[in-house]
Write a structure and sequence with these properties.
The protein has about 400 residues and is mainly alpha-helical. The protein folds into 2 domains: about 170 residues, no CATH class; about 140 residues. It has 13 helices and 5 strands. Strands 1-2-3-4-5 form a 5-stranded parallel sheet. Helix 3 links the parallel strand 3 and strand 4. The protein is globular.
């Protein structure tokens, strides 16, 4: 088992018996669950761990994957099942097959899952000049650039022109790099609006369900924009903040936009140098912005006129403490004070754990800590493919 985890373990896909077992199991499931319209059929949820036997190394994992898909189609047809099968463009499977093709395209729906992408820019359909690197078994480095990821998608679309949608991760980890949740919400709206430019027709969000501290703006924008991709982000944001925060909604929106800007998500993602006078100054400003707005938060949190609205403000009291502590830690980091930054990060983690019962329905403390603590560990930052950056 790959690192002891069956879910992450790829099989010897050149072995027809292994493929037969997988196909039979998937077909049994489809037959027992005829209410399922679209059955996802994926490989392991890990990368660079494909079989290196004499047969497997002769071709790409995507070729064996298409073999599996064709064999599953035949088995479903034999059982007279019209279940659609969703196939995945993810990790090693971003690289298109060299020899195999889908024999019955009508059976299938494409799913594009660019997990290694940056969220500092939105989807870009123009891939002019992008040259895809060759497939190197178990030595792949995955693209962070949007245009590179989309170039892989387009290569697949030249082999398959059927229906497809995106599988995204805005609220898995990346929203923690935007403590105001404002820029991430804007990025979500832009990505949804650009789906059609990529030839995609929808989006699944792979995420923590508890992604509502400080606000649920990102989820609101995701739902509304998927329903109507002509929706204006500004209009949606104003409507959300008025509904969630009442009369002072616009002030709260400005506050959140400012918090997002000061934390500078590209800096948080490691796309800028960790030691930075500009970043240190921005982190110092966070405390002042919070200090000025805290009386507004306190007054509205104490109001009982509308419990939904007062609860939204109540959560912001905790959020104000969290971002001030986090800004202190990041200020030390930006000034190159590594050990002091770690000590201050420990205060952040201690605070969010101690108060978890107060906001656990809306805030995934475990993922917050797991994501951000990496910024304070004493090691060089690596990208998704393991390359030191």
């Amino acid at each position: 088992m790959w690192h002891g985890v069956p879910l992450n373990t790829n099989l010897c896909f050149s072995n027809p018996e292994a493929r037969k077992l997988m196909v039979r199991h998937a077909a049994d499931y489809a037959e027992a669950n005829r209410h399922i319209d679209m059955l996802h059929f994926w490989l392991a949820d890990a990368f660079n761990n494909h079989c290196e036997c004499d047969n497997c190394v002769k071709t790409l994992p995507s070729d064996y994957y298409v073999m599996l898909l064709n064999e599953l189609d035949e088995e479903l047809a034999a059982r007279e099942l019209d279940t659609k099968v969703v196939f995945l463009l993810y990790l090693d499977l971003l690289w298109v097959p060299q020899t195999e093709t889908l024999r019955n395209p009508d059976r299938f729906i494409l799913l594009f899952a660019p997990i290694s992408r940056t969220y500092s820019v939105s989807y870009e359909a123009d891939t002019t000049g992008i040259e895809l690197p060759p497939y190197v078994r178990n030595r792949l480095k995955f693209p962070s650039g949007i245009r590179e990821n989309v170039a892989h998608l387009k290569a697949w679309q030249r082999l398959f022109d059927g229906d497809g949608f995106a599988y995204e991760y805005h609220h898995m980890w990346d929203h923690y790099y935007d403590p105001g949740y404002y820029e991430m919400a804007k990025r979500i709206g832009e990505d949804v609006k650009n789906l059609k430019k990529l030839g995609l027709n929808g989006m699944i969000s792979d995420q923590t369900q508890r992604s509502f501290l400080p606000t649920g703006l990102g989820m609101y924008v995701l739902g509304k924009t998927l329903w109507n991709d002509n929706a204006s982000f500004q209009t949606l944001a104003e409507d959300y903040f008025k509904s969630a925060f009442g009369e002072k909604g616009n002030d709260c929106m400005t506050y959140m936009e400012t918090i997002s800007d000061l934390f500078d998500p590209p800096y948080m993602r490691g796309e800028k140098p960790p030691v930075s006078a500009e970043a240190a100054e921005k982190m110092r400003r966070v405390r002042e912005v919070v200090r000025q707005f805290r009386p507004v938060i306190e007054r509205n949190a104490a109001s009982s006129a509308d419990r939904c609205i007062s609860k939204s403000w109540e959560y912001l009291l905790y959020h104000a403490d969290i971002v001030c502590l986090l800004a202190d830690a990041l200020e030390a980091r930006a000034e190159g004070e590594t050990e002091e930054a770690r000590k201050r990060w420990d205060k952040v983690a201690d605070y969010v754990w101690r108060h978890e019962d107060s906001y656990q329905p809306v805030f995934d403390v475990y993922l917050f800590v797991q994501t951000l603590q990496k910024m304070f560990q004493d090691k060089r930052k690596t990208n998704f493919g393991g390359e030191v950056v």
